[in-house]
Design brief:
about 280 residues, mainly alpha, about 80% helix, about 0% strand, globular, Tetratricopeptide repeat protein, TPR_rpt
């Protein structure tokens, strides 16, 4: 008889657990799709549950921290990321975003320490480590640690999706260090192998020759860059003319258009300065 009386309680508990899991499934979908209005709607009801499992609680901290970062309030995200335990499935994601929050706050020394600790771990997959190296290298470059940045960029795998940014970083650090040969080598790789991902390679080759005062080569490469960018701009403008403003890739194409217009202006300015020096 007692067993029969307990059945409804067990069934109720199972039903409650299933409802919570459905809510978490919806929350994960909202985070994955970056639908932050849905995240904001779902967080309050989940935060008031007292019987959440440790993985659920960790994910709740992650989702709330991501929401704060989406709003630009990185400082409020930091303590939430720090609450997530090392054995959590979302720990590495949390620490990566913690480093981003430090960088957004301008706390680059904290960010560098965090990224170096992550890179010292043995278990993360190679591409995640490449992402950390890119973040660290970019920050070192921005802070003027050019030798450190060049070393960091050089550790990024050549088959990584970050390899184009790595070549650009190596080239920029070489320029700052006065190594024009190293800069040319990196920018040529960028131009020849990654023109679609990062179109700046053609301009940067010309700019490096300009810095070396090799004006004929600089002029030829500025002209080549102009022709390339003008052709690419025409192709994008043709594509945009066929797109509706609401199309999924319209914003991305408009960003590429703005980028190419900037590169065209920079190349034209480079040519003009060469004419002035003759």
């Amino acid at each position: 008889m007692l067993g029969l009386l307990c059945l409804p309680v067990v069934a109720l508990s199972q039903s409650f657990d299933q409802a919570i899991e459905r809510q978490f499934s919806d929350l994960r979908d909202a985070v994955r799709q970056a639908q932050w209005h849905r995240v904001e709607e779902q967080l309050p009801s989940l935060q008031h549950h007292y019987s959440l499992s440790p993985p659920q609680r960790s994910y709740l901290h992650l989702a709330e921290a991501l929401l704060w970062q989406y709003r630009g309030e990185h400082r409020r995200a930091i303590p939430l990321y720090e609450r997530i335990e090392p054995d959590s499935d979302v720990y590495l994601e949390a620490r990566t975003n913690l480093a981003i929050a430090f960088l957004k706050q301008g706390w680059w020394s904290d960010a560098h320490r965090e990224l170096e600790q992550l890179l010292a771990r043995a278990e993360p997959e190679a591409e995640l480590k490449n992402r950390w190296r890119m973040m660290l290298g970019m920050s070192q470059l921005q802070q003027g640690f050019y030798r450190d940045a060049r070393t960091t960029f050089g550790t990024i795998d050549q088959n990584s999706r970050h390899s184009a940014q790595a070549w650009r970083g190596i080239g920029l650090t070489a320029l700052h260090l006065g190594d024009h040969g190293g800069a040319l080598n990196a920018f040529r790789r960028l131009k020849e192998e990654h023109a679609e991902d990062i179109p700046e390679g053609a301009f940067l080759v010309a700019f490096t020759y300009d810095r070396m005062n090799r004006l004929k080569l600089a002029e030829a490469n500025y002209r080549e860059a102009l022709l390339l960018y003008q052709h690419q701009l025409q192709q994008i403008q043709k594509t945009l003319a066929k797109r509706s403003p609401e199309a999924a890739d319209t914003r991305s194409l408009e960003a590429q258009q703005n980028r190419l217009n900037t590169l065209i202006s920079q190349s034209q300015y480079g040519l003009a300065t060469i004419y002035d020096r003759r």
